[in-house]
Sequence to fold (438 residues):
Amino acid sequence: MQITIYNFVSLVGIFMLMGCAWLLSKHRRRLNPRIIAAGLTIQCVFALFIFIIPVGTSIFIVINNVVVAILDSATAGIVFLFGRLGLSPGAVNETGESSIGFILATQALPAVIFFASLVAILYYLGIMPLLVKGFSYIFSKFMRISGAESLSASSNIFVGIESSLVIRPYLEKMTKSELCTILAAGMGTIASSMLATYVMMLHDQFPNIAGHLVSATILAAPGAVVMAKIIYPETEQPETLGITIKPFYERENNVIEAIINGANTGVKLVIGISATLIALLGLVALIDLALGFIGGYLNTWTGAHIDWSLRSLLGILAYPFALMIGIPLADAGAVAQVIGERLVLTEVVAYRHLAEMIADGTISDPRSAVVAVYALCGFAHVASLAIFVGGVSAVAPARTKELSEVGIRALIAATLGCLLTAAWAGIFFTQNSILFGQ
Fold:
Protein backbone atom coordinates (compact mmCIF):
# COMPACT_ATOMS: atom_id res chain seq x y z
CA MET A 1 0.00 0.00 0.00
CA GLN A 2 1.53 3.29 -1.11
CA ILE A 3 0.67 5.96 1.47
CA THR A 4 1.36 9.64 0.84
CA ILE A 5 1.14 12.81 2.90
CA TYR A 6 -2.33 13.41 1.49
CA ASN A 7 -3.67 10.33 3.28
CA PHE A 8 -2.71 11.99 6.55
CA VAL A 9 -4.13 15.32 5.39
CA SER A 10 -7.49 13.61 4.88
CA LEU A 11 -7.27 12.14 8.39
CA VAL A 12 -6.59 15.54 9.93
CA GLY A 13 -9.34 16.95 7.72
CA ILE A 14 -11.94 14.84 9.52
CA PHE A 15 -11.26 16.67 12.76
CA MET A 16 -11.08 20.04 11.02
CA LEU A 17 -14.49 19.46 9.44
CA MET A 18 -15.96 18.54 12.81
CA GLY A 19 -14.35 21.66 14.23
CA CYS A 20 -16.14 23.76 11.62
CA ALA A 21 -19.42 22.09 12.62
CA TRP A 22 -18.71 22.80 16.30
CA LEU A 23 -18.15 26.50 15.59
CA LEU A 24 -21.63 26.61 14.05
CA SER A 25 -23.23 24.48 16.76
CA LYS A 26 -26.52 25.56 18.31
CA HIS A 27 -25.47 24.17 21.72
CA ARG A 28 -21.69 23.75 21.85
CA ARG A 29 -21.68 22.38 25.38
CA ARG A 30 -24.32 19.73 24.76
CA LEU A 31 -22.44 17.52 22.32
CA ASN A 32 -22.88 13.76 22.72
CA PRO A 33 -19.41 12.17 22.37
CA ARG A 34 -20.91 8.68 21.98
CA ILE A 35 -22.86 9.62 18.85
CA ILE A 36 -19.81 11.27 17.28
CA ALA A 37 -17.42 8.44 18.15
CA ALA A 38 -19.86 5.72 17.10
CA GLY A 39 -20.68 7.45 13.81
CA LEU A 40 -17.00 7.83 12.92
CA THR A 41 -16.34 4.23 13.94
CA ILE A 42 -19.12 2.94 11.68
CA GLN A 43 -17.67 4.93 8.79
CA CYS A 44 -14.13 3.73 9.51
CA VAL A 45 -15.13 0.05 9.81
CA PHE A 46 -17.16 0.17 6.60
CA ALA A 47 -14.37 1.97 4.73
CA LEU A 48 -11.82 -0.58 5.96
CA PHE A 49 -14.08 -3.45 4.92
CA ILE A 50 -14.66 -2.08 1.43
CA PHE A 51 -11.25 -0.62 0.62
CA ILE A 52 -8.76 -2.78 2.52
CA ILE A 53 -10.18 -6.22 3.39
CA PRO A 54 -10.09 -8.55 0.34
CA VAL A 55 -13.60 -9.91 0.90
CA GLY A 56 -15.00 -6.39 1.09
CA THR A 57 -13.13 -5.40 -2.05
CA SER A 58 -14.61 -8.37 -3.89
CA ILE A 59 -18.10 -7.38 -2.76
CA PHE A 60 -17.43 -3.83 -3.98
CA ILE A 61 -16.53 -5.12 -7.45
CA VAL A 62 -19.62 -7.35 -7.55
CA ILE A 63 -21.89 -4.46 -6.59
CA ASN A 64 -20.31 -2.28 -9.26
CA ASN A 65 -20.78 -4.93 -11.94
CA VAL A 66 -24.38 -5.61 -10.91
CA VAL A 67 -25.31 -1.91 -11.06
CA VAL A 68 -23.64 -1.52 -14.46
CA ALA A 69 -25.45 -4.61 -15.78
CA ILE A 70 -28.78 -3.27 -14.53
CA LEU A 71 -28.02 0.08 -16.13
CA ASP A 72 -27.33 -1.64 -19.44
CA SER A 73 -30.78 -3.22 -19.18
CA ALA A 74 -32.30 0.19 -18.48
CA THR A 75 -31.03 1.52 -21.80
CA ALA A 76 -33.31 -0.86 -23.76
CA GLY A 77 -36.41 1.25 -23.15
CA ILE A 78 -34.47 4.49 -23.54
CA VAL A 79 -33.09 3.56 -26.97
CA PHE A 80 -36.53 2.31 -28.07
CA LEU A 81 -37.99 5.76 -27.33
CA PHE A 82 -35.14 8.06 -28.36
CA GLY A 83 -33.18 6.03 -30.92
CA ARG A 84 -29.63 7.31 -31.43
CA LEU A 85 -30.25 10.09 -28.91
CA GLY A 86 -30.58 7.43 -26.21
CA LEU A 87 -27.35 5.60 -27.02
CA SER A 88 -24.52 6.06 -24.53
CA PRO A 89 -21.29 7.55 -25.92
CA GLY A 90 -19.50 4.94 -28.01
CA ALA A 91 -22.50 2.61 -28.23
CA VAL A 92 -23.91 1.24 -31.49
CA ASN A 93 -27.49 0.02 -32.04
CA GLU A 94 -28.68 -3.05 -33.97
CA THR A 95 -28.84 -1.14 -37.25
CA GLY A 96 -25.26 0.07 -36.97
CA GLU A 97 -26.08 3.63 -35.90
CA SER A 98 -23.66 5.07 -33.34
CA SER A 99 -24.22 7.46 -30.47
CA ILE A 100 -24.00 11.17 -31.21
CA GLY A 101 -22.55 11.86 -27.75
CA PHE A 102 -23.74 12.30 -24.19
CA ILE A 103 -27.16 13.94 -23.79
CA LEU A 104 -28.39 14.30 -20.23
CA ALA A 105 -32.09 14.57 -21.10
CA THR A 106 -32.29 11.48 -23.32
CA GLN A 107 -29.72 9.17 -21.71
CA ALA A 108 -29.08 9.71 -18.00
CA LEU A 109 -32.35 11.17 -16.70
CA PRO A 110 -34.71 8.58 -18.29
CA ALA A 111 -32.76 5.84 -16.48
CA VAL A 112 -34.09 7.32 -13.23
CA ILE A 113 -37.56 6.05 -14.20
CA PHE A 114 -36.28 2.49 -14.60
CA PHE A 115 -34.41 2.56 -11.29
CA ALA A 116 -37.42 4.05 -9.49
CA SER A 117 -39.54 1.12 -10.70
CA LEU A 118 -36.84 -1.35 -9.65
CA VAL A 119 -36.73 0.13 -6.14
CA ALA A 120 -40.54 -0.06 -5.97
CA ILE A 121 -40.38 -3.76 -6.87
CA LEU A 122 -37.77 -4.36 -4.15
CA TYR A 123 -40.04 -2.63 -1.66
CA TYR A 124 -43.00 -4.75 -2.73
CA LEU A 125 -40.97 -7.96 -2.37
CA GLY A 126 -39.87 -6.92 1.12
CA ILE A 127 -36.17 -6.78 0.25
CA MET A 128 -35.75 -3.02 0.67
CA PRO A 129 -37.56 -2.82 4.05
CA LEU A 130 -35.27 -5.59 5.29
CA LEU A 131 -32.16 -3.65 4.28
CA VAL A 132 -33.54 -0.45 5.79
CA LYS A 133 -34.27 -2.19 9.10
CA GLY A 134 -30.78 -3.69 9.11
CA PHE A 135 -29.04 -0.33 8.78
CA SER A 136 -31.51 1.23 11.20
CA TYR A 137 -30.61 -1.35 13.83
CA ILE A 138 -26.89 -0.59 13.41
CA PHE A 139 -27.39 3.17 13.73
CA SER A 140 -29.75 2.86 16.70
CA LYS A 141 -27.67 0.23 18.51
CA PHE A 142 -24.26 1.86 18.22
CA MET A 143 -24.98 5.58 17.86
CA ARG A 144 -27.83 5.61 20.40
CA ILE A 145 -29.94 8.00 18.36
CA SER A 146 -33.72 7.73 18.36
CA GLY A 147 -35.48 4.97 16.47
CA ALA A 148 -37.11 7.52 14.15
CA GLU A 149 -33.75 9.12 13.30
CA SER A 150 -32.15 5.73 12.68
CA LEU A 151 -34.97 4.61 10.42
CA SER A 152 -34.94 7.86 8.45
CA ALA A 153 -31.16 7.87 8.02
CA SER A 154 -31.12 4.25 6.86
CA SER A 155 -34.02 4.87 4.46
CA ASN A 156 -32.12 7.74 2.88
CA ILE A 157 -29.41 5.32 1.77
CA PHE A 158 -31.94 3.94 -0.71
CA VAL A 159 -34.57 6.64 -1.35
CA GLY A 160 -34.91 10.42 -1.27
CA ILE A 161 -37.72 12.58 0.09
CA GLU A 162 -39.85 9.42 0.35
CA SER A 163 -37.84 8.56 3.47
CA SER A 164 -40.04 10.95 5.47
CA LEU A 165 -42.99 8.65 4.83
CA VAL A 166 -41.46 5.71 6.70
CA ILE A 167 -41.45 7.76 9.92
CA ARG A 168 -44.72 9.59 9.25
CA PRO A 169 -46.41 8.60 12.55
CA TYR A 170 -43.53 10.11 14.57
CA LEU A 171 -42.90 13.42 12.80
CA GLU A 172 -45.41 15.43 14.84
CA LYS A 173 -43.58 14.73 18.12
CA MET A 174 -39.95 14.78 17.01
CA THR A 175 -37.54 17.21 18.65
CA LYS A 176 -35.82 19.99 16.70
CA SER A 177 -32.55 18.04 16.82
CA GLU A 178 -34.31 15.02 15.32
CA LEU A 179 -35.84 17.17 12.57
CA CYS A 180 -32.41 18.62 11.78
CA THR A 181 -30.99 15.10 11.61
CA ILE A 182 -33.59 13.71 9.21
CA LEU A 183 -33.19 16.74 6.92
CA ALA A 184 -29.39 16.45 7.01
CA ALA A 185 -29.53 12.71 6.31
CA GLY A 186 -31.85 13.35 3.38
CA MET A 187 -29.66 16.04 1.84
CA GLY A 188 -26.38 14.32 2.71
CA THR A 189 -27.12 11.13 0.74
CA ILE A 190 -28.37 10.27 -2.75
CA ALA A 191 -31.40 8.21 -3.75
CA SER A 192 -30.67 4.89 -5.45
CA SER A 193 -32.84 5.97 -8.37
CA MET A 194 -30.30 8.73 -9.14
CA LEU A 195 -27.34 6.36 -9.34
CA ALA A 196 -27.95 5.75 -13.03
CA THR A 197 -27.55 9.42 -13.88
CA TYR A 198 -24.19 9.75 -12.18
CA VAL A 199 -22.91 6.41 -13.46
CA MET A 200 -23.66 7.37 -17.07
CA MET A 201 -21.87 10.70 -16.60
CA LEU A 202 -18.68 9.24 -15.15
CA HIS A 203 -18.44 5.64 -16.32
CA ASP A 204 -15.95 6.45 -19.09
CA GLN A 205 -13.62 8.09 -16.56
CA PHE A 206 -14.32 5.60 -13.75
CA PRO A 207 -15.08 1.96 -14.64
CA ASN A 208 -15.82 1.35 -10.93
CA ILE A 209 -17.94 4.48 -10.42
CA ALA A 210 -21.12 2.54 -9.55
CA GLY A 211 -19.43 0.80 -6.62
CA HIS A 212 -17.97 4.09 -5.42
CA LEU A 213 -21.38 5.77 -5.44
CA VAL A 214 -22.98 2.91 -3.50
CA SER A 215 -20.22 2.96 -0.87
CA ALA A 216 -20.35 6.77 -0.73
CA THR A 217 -24.05 6.94 0.06
CA ILE A 218 -23.69 4.27 2.77
CA LEU A 219 -20.76 6.15 4.30
CA ALA A 220 -22.63 9.44 4.02
CA ALA A 221 -25.60 8.41 6.18
CA PRO A 222 -23.72 8.13 9.52
CA GLY A 223 -21.56 11.10 8.48
CA ALA A 224 -24.61 13.33 8.04
CA VAL A 225 -25.95 12.20 11.43
CA VAL A 226 -22.63 13.02 13.10
CA MET A 227 -22.53 16.51 11.63
CA ALA A 228 -26.21 17.13 12.41
CA LYS A 229 -25.70 16.14 16.03
CA ILE A 230 -22.72 18.48 16.32
CA ILE A 231 -24.50 21.40 14.68
CA TYR A 232 -27.80 20.81 16.49
CA PRO A 233 -27.21 18.61 19.58
CA GLU A 234 -30.13 17.00 21.37
CA THR A 235 -31.40 18.96 24.38
CA GLU A 236 -34.76 17.20 24.77
CA GLN A 237 -35.98 13.64 25.25
CA PRO A 238 -36.89 11.98 21.91
CA GLU A 239 -40.03 9.87 22.05
CA THR A 240 -38.42 6.92 20.26
CA LEU A 241 -35.02 7.01 22.00
CA GLY A 242 -33.88 3.44 22.57
CA ILE A 243 -36.91 2.06 20.73
CA THR A 244 -36.74 0.06 17.50
CA ILE A 245 -39.56 1.09 15.18
CA LYS A 246 -40.82 -0.45 11.98
CA PRO A 247 -40.92 1.43 8.67
CA PHE A 248 -44.34 2.82 7.78
CA TYR A 249 -45.24 2.46 4.14
CA GLU A 250 -48.22 1.48 2.03
CA ARG A 251 -47.57 -1.74 0.13
CA GLU A 252 -49.00 -2.06 -3.37
CA ASN A 253 -51.54 -4.78 -4.15
CA ASN A 254 -49.34 -6.48 -6.73
CA VAL A 255 -46.01 -6.18 -8.52
CA ILE A 256 -47.55 -4.54 -11.61
CA GLU A 257 -48.95 -1.75 -9.46
CA ALA A 258 -45.51 -1.38 -7.84
CA ILE A 259 -43.89 -1.02 -11.27
CA ILE A 260 -46.42 1.57 -12.42
CA ASN A 261 -46.25 3.60 -9.20
CA GLY A 262 -42.45 3.45 -9.27
CA ALA A 263 -42.35 4.62 -12.86
CA ASN A 264 -44.75 7.48 -12.11
CA THR A 265 -42.55 8.50 -9.18
CA GLY A 266 -39.53 8.42 -11.47
CA VAL A 267 -41.29 10.59 -14.04
CA LYS A 268 -42.07 13.19 -11.38
CA LEU A 269 -38.45 13.10 -10.26
CA VAL A 270 -37.13 13.56 -13.81
CA ILE A 271 -39.52 16.45 -14.45
CA GLY A 272 -38.53 18.04 -11.15
CA ILE A 273 -34.82 17.70 -11.89
CA SER A 274 -35.23 19.07 -15.42
CA ALA A 275 -37.29 22.04 -14.25
CA THR A 276 -34.81 22.80 -11.47
CA LEU A 277 -31.84 22.68 -13.84
CA ILE A 278 -33.53 24.92 -16.41
CA ALA A 279 -34.45 27.48 -13.75
CA LEU A 280 -31.17 27.42 -11.80
CA LEU A 281 -28.85 27.43 -14.79
CA GLY A 282 -30.77 30.35 -16.30
CA LEU A 283 -30.71 32.31 -13.06
CA VAL A 284 -27.02 31.63 -12.53
CA ALA A 285 -26.30 32.83 -16.09
CA LEU A 286 -28.19 36.01 -15.27
CA ILE A 287 -26.24 36.45 -12.03
CA ASP A 288 -22.98 35.84 -13.88
CA LEU A 289 -23.96 38.51 -16.38
CA ALA A 290 -24.45 41.04 -13.57
CA LEU A 291 -21.28 39.96 -11.76
CA GLY A 292 -19.29 40.16 -14.98
CA PHE A 293 -20.56 43.67 -15.70
CA ILE A 294 -19.68 44.97 -12.23
CA GLY A 295 -16.50 42.90 -11.96
CA GLY A 296 -15.26 44.17 -15.32
CA TYR A 297 -15.17 47.72 -13.99
CA LEU A 298 -13.49 46.57 -10.78
CA ASN A 299 -10.84 44.65 -12.72
CA THR A 300 -10.16 47.70 -14.89
CA TRP A 301 -9.96 49.98 -11.85
CA THR A 302 -7.73 47.69 -9.77
CA GLY A 303 -5.78 46.02 -12.56
CA ALA A 304 -6.82 42.60 -11.25
CA HIS A 305 -7.80 39.59 -13.36
CA ILE A 306 -10.57 38.06 -11.24
CA ASP A 307 -13.13 35.72 -12.78
CA TRP A 308 -16.37 37.33 -11.61
CA SER A 309 -18.68 34.35 -11.94
CA LEU A 310 -20.76 32.62 -9.30
CA ARG A 311 -18.97 29.36 -9.96
CA SER A 312 -15.57 30.97 -9.43
CA LEU A 313 -16.62 32.81 -6.26
CA LEU A 314 -18.15 29.68 -4.74
CA GLY A 315 -14.96 27.86 -5.66
CA ILE A 316 -12.97 30.37 -3.63
CA LEU A 317 -15.19 29.71 -0.60
CA ALA A 318 -14.86 25.95 -1.04
CA TYR A 319 -11.08 26.00 -1.58
CA PRO A 320 -10.10 25.48 2.10
CA PHE A 321 -12.47 22.51 2.31
CA ALA A 322 -10.94 20.96 -0.82
CA LEU A 323 -7.57 21.10 0.94
CA MET A 324 -9.05 19.66 4.15
CA ILE A 325 -10.30 16.50 2.47
CA GLY A 326 -6.89 15.83 0.95
CA ILE A 327 -7.04 17.22 -2.59
CA PRO A 328 -3.50 17.87 -3.95
CA LEU A 329 -2.66 21.55 -4.43
CA ALA A 330 -2.48 21.25 -8.23
CA ASP A 331 -6.15 20.22 -8.43
CA ALA A 332 -7.59 21.95 -5.36
CA GLY A 333 -8.89 24.95 -7.30
CA ALA A 334 -10.75 22.85 -9.89
CA VAL A 335 -12.25 20.48 -7.30
CA ALA A 336 -13.23 23.45 -5.13
CA GLN A 337 -15.21 24.83 -8.07
CA VAL A 338 -17.37 21.71 -8.44
CA ILE A 339 -17.83 21.45 -4.67
CA GLY A 340 -18.87 25.09 -4.51
CA GLU A 341 -21.20 24.99 -7.50
CA ARG A 342 -22.97 21.89 -6.13
CA LEU A 343 -24.35 24.11 -3.37
CA VAL A 344 -26.30 26.16 -5.93
CA LEU A 345 -26.41 24.22 -9.19
CA THR A 346 -27.10 20.71 -7.75
CA GLU A 347 -24.86 17.65 -7.87
CA VAL A 348 -26.06 16.80 -11.40
CA VAL A 349 -24.29 19.84 -12.85
CA ALA A 350 -21.30 19.37 -10.56
CA TYR A 351 -20.81 15.74 -11.62
CA ARG A 352 -21.13 16.73 -15.27
CA HIS A 353 -18.45 19.39 -14.89
CA LEU A 354 -16.27 16.95 -12.94
CA ALA A 355 -16.47 14.47 -15.83
CA GLU A 356 -15.50 17.20 -18.28
CA MET A 357 -12.57 18.31 -16.11
CA ILE A 358 -11.25 14.75 -15.91
CA ALA A 359 -11.70 14.20 -19.65
CA ASP A 360 -9.86 17.39 -20.66
CA GLY A 361 -7.09 16.97 -18.09
CA THR A 362 -8.03 19.92 -15.88
CA ILE A 363 -8.10 17.38 -13.04
CA SER A 364 -5.19 15.05 -13.71
CA ASP A 365 -4.50 13.33 -10.38
CA PRO A 366 -6.59 10.14 -9.86
CA ARG A 367 -6.72 10.93 -6.15
CA SER A 368 -8.39 14.29 -6.79
CA ALA A 369 -10.99 12.72 -9.07
CA VAL A 370 -11.89 9.93 -6.66
CA VAL A 371 -12.15 12.12 -3.57
CA ALA A 372 -14.24 14.64 -5.54
CA VAL A 373 -16.70 11.88 -6.51
CA TYR A 374 -17.31 11.18 -2.82
CA ALA A 375 -17.52 14.87 -1.91
CA LEU A 376 -20.30 15.45 -4.47
CA CYS A 377 -22.32 12.36 -3.52
CA GLY A 378 -25.28 14.03 -1.83
CA PHE A 379 -28.31 16.28 -2.36
CA ALA A 380 -26.68 19.07 -0.34
CA HIS A 381 -27.79 22.13 -2.26
CA VAL A 382 -30.26 25.01 -2.00
CA ALA A 383 -32.88 23.39 -4.24
CA SER A 384 -32.78 20.22 -2.13
CA LEU A 385 -33.32 22.28 1.03
CA ALA A 386 -36.58 23.58 -0.41
CA ILE A 387 -37.58 20.10 -1.56
CA PHE A 388 -36.94 18.37 1.77
CA VAL A 389 -38.36 21.10 3.99
CA GLY A 390 -41.40 21.32 1.75
CA GLY A 391 -41.77 17.55 1.47
CA VAL A 392 -41.56 16.86 5.20
CA SER A 393 -43.83 19.83 5.92
CA ALA A 394 -46.43 18.34 3.60
CA VAL A 395 -46.41 15.15 5.69
CA ALA A 396 -46.33 17.00 9.04
CA PRO A 397 -47.75 20.51 8.43
CA ALA A 398 -47.76 21.32 12.15
CA ARG A 399 -43.92 21.21 12.14
CA THR A 400 -43.40 23.64 9.25
CA LYS A 401 -42.05 26.41 11.48
CA GLU A 402 -39.52 24.15 13.21
CA LEU A 403 -38.43 22.62 9.92
CA SER A 404 -37.81 26.09 8.48
CA GLU A 405 -35.80 27.05 11.56
CA VAL A 406 -33.44 24.08 11.36
CA GLY A 407 -33.27 23.89 7.55
CA ILE A 408 -30.13 25.97 7.00
CA ARG A 409 -28.27 24.15 9.78
CA ALA A 410 -29.32 20.84 8.22
CA LEU A 411 -27.97 21.94 4.82
CA ILE A 412 -24.64 22.88 6.40
CA ALA A 413 -24.54 19.55 8.25
CA ALA A 414 -25.31 17.67 5.01
CA THR A 415 -22.56 19.54 3.15
CA LEU A 416 -20.00 18.84 5.87
CA GLY A 417 -21.21 15.23 5.99
CA CYS A 418 -20.45 14.82 2.27
CA LEU A 419 -17.00 16.28 2.82
CA LEU A 420 -16.50 13.93 5.77
CA THR A 421 -17.27 10.99 3.47
CA ALA A 422 -14.74 12.32 0.96
CA ALA A 423 -12.12 12.56 3.70
CA TRP A 424 -12.59 8.85 4.49
CA ALA A 425 -12.08 8.03 0.81
CA GLY A 426 -8.96 10.21 0.90
CA ILE A 427 -7.59 8.33 3.89
CA PHE A 428 -7.78 4.96 2.13
CA PHE A 429 -6.84 6.11 -1.37
CA THR A 430 -3.74 4.47 -2.84
CA GLN A 431 -2.49 4.64 -6.42
CA ASN A 432 -2.27 0.84 -6.74
CA SER A 433 -5.75 0.03 -5.42
CA ILE A 434 -8.04 -1.67 -7.95
CA LEU A 435 -10.95 0.23 -6.41
CA PHE A 436 -9.51 3.55 -7.46
CA GLY A 437 -8.51 2.64 -11.00
CA GLN A 438 -9.68 4.96 -13.76
